[in-house]
Design goal:
The protein is an alpha/beta fold. It has helices at residues 7-16, 35-45, 59-64, 81-93; strands at 23-27, 50-55, 73-76. The protein contains four helices and three strands, in the order αβαβαβα. Helix 3 links the parallel strand 2 and strand 3 (73-76). The chain is globular, with a radius of gyration of 13 Å.
């Protein structure tokens, strides 16, 4: 597991990491670079990577604001470790 404090650090980690990154879990709202900007940048480096957004916004609010595309996987905060694990499994198992 790779962990970054924000978008710019995540991009640097990805550039230096030679292994596969199966899933990006990112918040929608972050300083310096929002989750959608991070996901779009990483998708260029990691085209097979799956994506899960988290946010205190509702999924509808995140989509309506343009922060998240309508087909993106989304988990609203607050969430439990079990609900996060189930959502991660769902995203990884999706075709």
């Amino acid at each position: 597991m790779l962990e970054a404090a924000g978008g710019p650090e995540a991009l640097r980690l990805s550039e230096r990491f030679s292994g596969a990154i199966q899933l990006l879990v990112t918040d929608v709202v972050m300083p310096k670079m929002n989750g959608r900007e991070l996901a779009e940048s990483l998708a260029k480096q990691r085209p097979g990577m799956k994506l899960l957004y988290t946010s205190g916004y509702t999924d509808r609010g995140a989509v309506e604001s343009g922060a998240v595309s309508g087909d993106a996987a989304f988990l609203q905060k607050p969430f439990t470790p079990d609900s996060l694990a189930r959502k991660v499994r769902d995203v990884l198992d999706a075709a």
